[in-house]
Amino acid sequence: MRTTVKLKSALATLALLASNLTWSAGFLEREIFFSEADIQTQVEKSGTMQKSYGNGMVIVSFLEPPKIRLGNPEGRAALSARINVSLLGQPAVPVAVEGTSGLRYDDNAKAFFLENPVAQAVQSQAIPREAEPMARQAITQLMNSYFRAKPVYVLREDGSTQEKAARWLLRSIRIEPGRVAAVLSPV
What we know:
Blueprint: H1 2-24, E1 30-35, H2 36-46, E2 50-53, E3 58-62, E4 67-70, E5 77-87, E6 93-106, E7 111-123, H3 132-149, E8 153-154, H4 161-169, E9 170-176, E10 179-184
Antiparallel strand pairs: 1-10, 2-3, 3-5, 4-5, 5-6, 6-7, 7-8, 9-10
């Protein structure tokens, strides 16, 4: 009888160790993917935004929702947008903007947001060179406000089985070319 108890205890300990090793080795992890098209569809639904900075010294507004490309540069999202910029009360001029951003998951909202977008290139014939840094800073602030308030993808309760699982088991995310990989794990 005593040998049976010891054997059961040893088997339970072995099973516990094996399950712990399985989880830590990633054998129970599963990846699901969200495409660049899925994200762009959500951004299109979010519409545009306008912001004023410095008591109206700079007014920036999206002419249309930004375009998102995933994974170029590696591990980041590339942004391109057409934005109107009005400096010091002058008429608004169109500006082409290129930028990059990271990605974060908000567990409370069960949603993905672009994080810390930065305007890296601002192109416009109408903005003087000396005003470009001020325009780039205002555009970066506009993009930060826009993506802080508007998710690029939301995990729905009534979504696919994968989305339902991701709502509870999401462990990490990464940006790959053309998609977002979400790692699910019970640990």
